[in-house]
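Exam revision sheet. Question 4 asks you to relate a sequence to its structure. Input first:
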Amino acid sequence: MRKAILSVVAILILAGGFYGMVKLSNREKRQRPQAEKVRPTVFVNPVKNDLIPIYIQESGRLRSKNRIEIYAEVQGVMESSRKEFKPGTNFKAGEVMVSIRNNDFYANLQAQKSILQNLITGALPDLRIDFPESYQKWDNYVKNFDMDKPIGKLPEPSSDKEKYFITGKNIYTTYYNTKNQEIILQKYTLRAPFDGILIDALVNPGTVVRPGQRLGELIDPSVYELELAISNSYLPDLTIGKAVEISDLTNSGKTWQGKISRINGRVNTTTQTVQVFIEVRGKELREGMFLNASITAKPKENAYEVARNLLVNDNNLYVVEDSTLRMVPITVVHRTTDTVVVRGLEDGLQVVAKPVAGAYAGMSVVVNKNAE
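Answer key, structure tokens:
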């Protein structure tokens, strides 16, 4: 009897446990309420194709248009000059920049002048007898001979016979040797070819200067050139003398007016760009400044301008149709730093005006027509 009672109790416990398990399972199977899907808000602008003005924006480094590298052609010790040969020193045209000691060479030149003078003087008696019509001009040449001044041009012979006589006296050879030494003497003193400022100096007084040695560099600070690399496709829009607006990239707001001075005739085979040089003047300009140039090009017809960061894979844009994103192909016809000018959009299309995080074609969105 006892065993029967225990068996009944065990069966009841098992049944109760099974019933409870079924109830819990049914409760788990109840559908949980789905969270409402949030649609992103996008800003759009209606497309209106128009004539878009085009500005070629390029940057480059400023360089002086007139510049000269200073090299020595003779050897000697550099002497001190009135002005220091150091970067930042200004020189006027014709002013001495570098002076090289020339004592030995000057003495040799004076000796050569004396030889020439003696040769002509020795030929005067024969000239008086054989060429009386030419004697006076050679006599005047000797009388006006000044050892401290450059030698004058020799008198022209009146006949071939006189010319042969002068040649036989070795006067012409001595004259041209002397003239050559005078030219070399001038190279011991280097003068500024134009008003300029020294931007590089590699020697100091007391330095032994050798032929071919680079001494420094002089530039003209009154006129500069901005070198740009512009796409070959814009060549039809570029002409010599075309006005260009130059601006400072340091956000100082300063601008200058320049003009195209030169256009290279060769296209870079790697970048397909052409060197264009912009001439510009201004007191605040300095060698080496990095400036931006804006050149007006031919406007693009039937085009639309959008922000550059809206491009998808460089040749697509998102538009909204029936609250859904759709990707449309476009053709980029011009690029600037922040925007692109495109073709291929139909008037009235609602183009996305601001980037949408995680955007994809077919995304359901809420439209906000105020893109500002």
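Marking note for examiners. Helices lie at 2-29, 103-130, 132-143, 160-168, 171-186.
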